[in-house]
Amino acid sequence: MKKDEMIEIHGDSLTFQQYAAVVYDRVPVRLSDEAMTKMAQSKQFVNDLAAQEQSIYGVTTGFGKFSDCVISSQQAQELQLNLIKSHACGIGEPLPETIVRGMMLLRINALAKGYSGISPNTVQALITLLNHEVHPIVPSQGSLGASGDLAPLAHMCLPLLGLGYVNHHGKPKPSAQALKEIGLEPIRLEAKEGLALINGTQMMCSILADSILRAKNLLLAADIISALTIEALQGIPHAFHPLLQQVRGHQGQIMTAQNMRNLLKESKQVTSSGEKRVQDAYSLRCIPQVHGASKDTYHFAERIVATEMNAATDNPLIFTEIGEVISGGNFHGQPLAFAADFLKIAMAEIANISERRIERLVNPQLSNLPAFLTQNGGLHSGYMILQYVAASLVSENKVLCHPASVDSIPSSANQEDHVSMGSIAARKCLDVIENVSKVLAIEYVCATQALEFTPNQCGQGTRIAYELLRQYLPPLTTDREGHEDIATAHKLIQSGRLVQEVTTQMDLQI
């Protein structure tokens, strides 16, 4: 999708492809006519109720424990302004711009559903910020993942009021200055609008949408890179026989084995059972079972996130068709917390098994390859320490994989007595995925180097992967700075280039 195109927001049809286009490629968005109509009807309904002084949470009452405190309609604007200012108390390093763009997009999409009692003009102001690439500076810490991502979303909304700070054209500046530069006046929040803006799961959902897109790329990259290792170690691909996978029945396992067979097609590097050994070690033989289980978990998380991307997640919600305001708990991040914890565990295992393959590549006791993949061992250390780095990342992931979703701390004087910690789970998930990409980069470097000591008659898919890395990284003949080798491979993986190059010529499935 080109940047001069525009994505129409309906509230119930946002896809991962559209998310990527807006977040990464900066494609602009606009509200559909239907969304504008639904929001206007919902806002008028709230205004009518507020004028009648009816008791509505967050409209004519305070928030959290203050839900029993009555607020007059004359104080409606002050209540919403105070909400945003008081809740903007996040701390920690700022979130990346891509995650903030995702938060803005997802909040716009949720509000476009027309259940939040917010004016189309207020949502349009948020769209103006997004389309002009005015990105609020949002601290990464401070959300419990229930009552929504309150603190982060409050920081996201400050610029609408001319408060806080933004990044604009790559430079941090006061929001008031950025608004002036793009010709946007600060808005005045009306009844319920502040609550509608911050009562949702959009920070954790944005992080998880980003994680899903990255994980999909890495799961395919892992198959490609592990196939290179199979060849470098003269592995036995008979373990990938389709009948073996079918009698167990797990879809991820079946697809992974098919990928491995496709990648290794016509390879003369592989062996038959009994030719070199009867069976390979688990890190080679069980690639379909391990990678496949991670893929199945990925699909579960993908489904949860896809649903949440198009969900109404604030409270209360306005149902104009039946004339009711319903208070509930759609802001609770439990589905996303579980998805994040499951996904990070699944992805950590991709790195775990990759590190074991790296060890087999560099350890001469486990292969017929030169020690640490150098011909002049002793004077040269070769890729000895690359395995150390991989082991370090794998160990770090084990700490990060402690599930955040099993924790809860009461808040708001015990009114909000169970929370999801979904934002913490999501942030840790993204950290795990980043570490996984680096471990795979190390395996990519080592497997490609190992093939320099073999006849190098690769399969249809592995040949593409080998030649791609060799375009940018020559074989190791003398010691050099290993971090640059890792960075080169990591860039090819992280950018999606490795997967794209292979999949344009081969049918690989996730």
From TrEMBL:
Record's keyword annotation contains Cytoplasm: yes
Lineage of producing organism: Bacteria, Bacillati, Bacillota, Bacilli, Bacillales
Source organism (scientific name): Thermoflavimicrobium dichotomicum
Signal peptide range: none
Cross-link 5-imidazolinone (Ala-Gly), where in sequence: A146-G148
Gene of this entry: hutH
UniProt keyword annotations, A-Z: Cytoplasm, Histidine metabolism, Lyase
Classification via PANTHER family: HISTIDINE AMMONIA-LYASE
Residue numbers carrying 2,3-didehydroalanine (Ser): S147
Localization (cell): Cytoplasm
Post-translational modification: Contains an active site 4-methylidene-imidazol-5-one (MIO), which is formed autocatalytically by cyclization and dehydration of residues Ala-Ser-Gly.
GO cellular component entries: cytoplasm
MF term (GO), any: histidine ammonia-lyase activity
Enzyme class: lyase
NCBIfam families for this protein: hutH (TIGR01225), PRK09367.1 (NF006871)
Name under which the protein is recorded: Histidine ammonia-lyase
